[in-house]
Design brief:
This protein is an alpha+beta fold. Helices cover 36% and strands 22% of the residues. Helix 4 runs antiparallel to helix 5.
Length: 122
């Protein structure tokens, strides 16, 4: 696969890149570039432990925890947290929403009074 093929954020390209440890990020100049991490961070879900204080917060009723309720809004909220416009671009939101619709990307969201208060996607 040539460099121009990797530059496209199409589902097949994203899935192949992730399987090889690469991920896209928007840079300050507005371009999306590919990166790798060594060591690669992986959250092992089979052995995932929710810290006691987080579990207490979830049970408190302060937030409504939802999964995949509004994936694009979760990404847009993450983008808004970076005022310099880096990391997440509109192109990335489009591409990852497509992955989400295919069942490959998910979001976990905290809602309060029917407003998105926080979340993560991957």
């Amino acid at each position: 696969m040539g460099m121009t093929d990797w530059a496209r954020l199409e589902p097949e390209v994203l899935l192949l890149a992730y399987s090889q440890g690469a991920f896209p990020m928007g840079d300050a100049d507005g371009k999306v570039r590919w990166y790798t991490a060594d060591p690669r961070g992986i959250i092992p879900l089979d052995d995932f432990h929710i810290p006691k204080t987080l579990a207490q917060l979830c049970r408190s009723g302060r937030f409504d925890i939802r999964i995949n309720h509004d994936f694009p809004a979760t990404m847009r909220a993450c983008m808004a947290e970076r005022p310099d416009g880096t990391w997440i671009s509109q192109e990335m939101i489009r591409a990852y929403t497509e992955l989400h619709e295919m069942g490959f990307a998910h979001s976990v969201e905290a809602w309060r009074d029917n407003e998105l208060a926080g979340g993560l996607y991957g």
